[in-house]
């Protein structure tokens, strides 16, 4: 691909946006208080644009005009809470859809299923140890 001033503008804009947004922006640093760990979760949206044109000139040099720009939106949406070996998601804002609600319930559902399976396993072990009459 031919290197043009528009390409340089686009590359520069993308590089600056990459510097602003990384994985730690989406899943934040864990915060520990006592036996509870909180991990912030954010939604990141970004967009950019750039463009330019070569202007004809009576002189031998070509004139170039161009610009680029972008925007980033970071919105906190939830906290992952780890407490007493259990994990749950605490939403900050209202659910926008049933899918959002279902996704938020997955960690709590997994904890409940694990508890149920452990109880069932314990009951089975107790029944095996009890002699038949």
SSE blueprint:
Layout: H1 5-20, H2 23-26, E1 31-33, E2 36-55, E3 63-83, E4 86-91, H3 98-129
Antiparallel strand pairs: 1-2, 2-3, 3-4
Helix content: 25-40%
Q: Give me the number of helical elements.
A: 3
The coarse overall form would be rod-shaped
Secondary-structure element pattern, one letter each: HHEEEEH
The strands making up the biggest β-sheet line up spatially as 1-2-3-4
Distance between the termini: 84 Å
Mean pLDDT: 77
Tell me the quaternary state: single chain
Label this structure with key terms.
single chain; 133 residues; 4-stranded antiparallel sheet; 39% helix; 38% strand; rod-shaped
Write up what this structure looks like.
- By secondary structure, the protein is of the alpha+beta class.
- The protein has helices at 5-20, 23-26, 98-129, and strands spanning 31-33, 36-55, 63-83, 86-91.
- Strands 1-2-3-4 form a four-stranded antiparallel sheet, covered by helices on one side.
- The chain is rod-shaped, with a radius of gyration of 27 Å.
Overview in brief:
It contains 3 helices and 4 strands; from the N terminus they run ααββββα. By secondary structure, the chain is of the alpha+beta class. The chain has a 4-stranded antiparallel beta sheet, with helices on one face.
């Amino acid at each position: 691909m031919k290197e043009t001033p528009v390409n340089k503008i686009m590359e520069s804009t993308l590089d600056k946006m990459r510097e602003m947004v990384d994985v730690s922006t989406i899943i934040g640093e864990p915060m520990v208080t006592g036996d509870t760990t909180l991990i912030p979760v954010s939604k990141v949206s970004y967009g950019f644009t750039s463009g330019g044109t070569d202007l004809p000139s009576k002189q031998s040099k070509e004139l170039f005009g161009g610009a680029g720009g972008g925007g980033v939106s970071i919105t906190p949406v939830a906290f992952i809470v780890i407490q007493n070996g259990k994990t749950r998601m605490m939403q900050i804002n209202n659910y926008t859809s049933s899918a959002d609600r279902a996704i938020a319930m997955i960690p709590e559902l997994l904890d409940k299923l694990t508890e149920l399976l452990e109880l069932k396993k314990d009951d089975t072990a107790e029944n095996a140890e009890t002699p038949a009459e």
